């Protein structure tokens, strides 16, 4: 029997997949839809103290597609998503309603600009019945990290301590990927008493319309993420897992069940998802849960904790551990169509394009593997020599 349940920041979740704070988590009606599709928990769209951030411009979403031909096809989800439209009292009402009407953990999120705001909003969330609270100190276009002008790391730690002195429910701190030393800050908020850290919020980015020579959409900076974002988060989570006792929630780039598996192997207790749900619909939650269960069944795991952190416990090689022998070289298969993609890219000039199909000059081939990666029909194999 496959058990997907996990304990995160003292909360019991039926699956490690969490809906990240965003427009899809603003109202009880939207949250109920996510619950019906099997989400483990929900982080509500952030309540901001800065009132101007409660009104979002339109349009505010842009899918930036990147296509270089062949296998190169990815995208960035660029957005200027703003805070919840509600003030603190109305937001607290929605928290209370969600907690009462849904059976999964509902975690409000707050972002403030004054000490009084942090304390008052946190107390309101606890009074509303929230089982935990996420601190959004990392919004890519409106937070401690974005505003700067101070010692960002010290301010995040100070705000965490401020809130922890005000409430008794578990506090989770959502960190930014733009911090100089994210692991150091994660350790500091753990020492302060936080029960969880989220690695990470979105990056702050800028895209420019070269025809009108100005930034796209609203005309300023925006958050950006996408499938590519997973690799940076995996790097830090894999390093943080052996050193932290606090629970880690992965966030950024998870669009498939395989991504969820990777994050857990790196050490994440939960995986937060937003872009995949926004661009593929809430059915992607079912796909992720089913895919995770299928992978666990194939591997012989009955519980998520049986493989959590497996890759981060000595499986990642250091500089001196990497095998540097050139023991593989490329081989072109008969199905090669001589399309011409690989040959110009080989800096070793090891691809003979005078024949059909092409062939690899074995004495020259370095074994780097680039030709195999760019071939659109997988007509190149790397074989041991």
UniProtKB/TrEMBL annotation:
Record domain 4Fe-4S ferredoxin-type: where: 327-352, 356-385
GO cellular component: cytoplasm
Reaction equation(s) it catalyzes: 5,6-dihydrouracil + NAD(+) = uracil + NADH + H(+); 5,6-dihydrothymine + NAD(+) = thymine + NADH + H(+)
Uppermost EC category: oxidoreductase
GO MF term list: dihydropyrimidine dehydrogenase (NAD+) activity; iron-sulfur cluster binding; metal ion binding; NADP binding; uracil binding
Source superkingdom: Bacteria
Assigned EC number: 1.3.1.1
SUPFAM superfamilies membership: 4Fe-4S ferredoxins, FMN-linked oxidoreductases
Family: Belongs to the dihydropyrimidine dehydrogenase family.
Primary role: Involved in pyrimidine base degradation. Catalyzes physiologically the reduction of uracil to 5,6-dihydrouracil (DHU) by using NADH as a specific cosubstrate. It also catalyzes the reverse reaction and the reduction of thymine to 5,6-dihydrothymine (DHT).
Name this polypeptide is given: dihydrouracil dehydrogenase (NAD(+))
The species this protein was found in: Mahella australiensis (strain DSM 15567 / CIP 107919 / 50-1 BON)
Top-level taxonomy: Bacteria, Bacillati, Bacillota, Clostridia, Thermoanaerobacterales
